């Protein structure tokens, strides 16, 4: 089995990407055969997440989907999760919360930590909770696409994740923004209504604004900070 520990010795599979899902369904089928219940999907319930959930449901209807519930998400994001639960009742959606409540975080690190130390806030409310989720789990799935940003342009279907000492599976690497929306419209999938209001990338409410640059889908994230990632995808 391909694991973090056997990465150097195990052969990596290859997948065609000239089909309808650009390899995504093939990658997911392989991943769930390979890891069975020892793999989770960490989902933000953005538009890429909606596509992946639909694809995963075709391969493993009772898959575990983990949402990092920071306590700072938009109301519309929570509403989207409820719509997904209704459409895919067999999926096991886990709302993973940080060990510190927002009040406890404020007492230890100051009010509105995301304003003066956003990296620390992301560490406490996203990175550490995901590390807890992945403890004892061999692999996890992410909705990264190469087109999203320069920092994601070299992502492979299957990646060695040094940060979490895991295998990170990225089925959508060859999908474009247009591909994502075409799929959502074709299959009439529920999605976060904020996408229709200028938010191509949706994270925590205090750190997410409408995109400043229509050519940069993540330009509305952490505006005013030299920060482009929450830390989940940086080794």
Automatic annotation (TrEMBL):
- Could you tell me what reaction this enzyme catalyses? [thioredoxin]-disulfide + sulfite + AMP + 2 H(+) = adenosine 5'-phosphosulfate + [thioredoxin]-dithiol
UniProt-annotated location(s): Cytoplasm
Domain of life, per UniProt, equals: Bacteria
Q: Which Pfam families match?
A: PAPS_reduct
Report the leader peptide range: none
Record bears the keyword Zinc: no
Quote a single Gene Ontology cellular component term.
cytoplasm
Q: How is the cofactor bound?
A: Binds 1 [4Fe-4S] cluster per subunit.
Query: What InterPro entries does the annotation carry?
Result: APS_reductase, PAPS/APS_Rdtase, PAPS_reduct_dom, Rossmann-like_a/b/a_fold
Q: What family classification does the UniProt entry report for this protein?
A: Belongs to the PAPS reductase family. CysH subfamily.
* Function as written in the Swiss-Prot or TrEMBL entry: Catalyzes the formation of sulfite from adenosine 5'-phosphosulfate (APS) using thioredoxin as an electron donor.
Question: Know the name of this protein?
Answer: Adenosine 5'-phosphosulfate reductase
Which gene holds the coding sequence for this protein? cysH
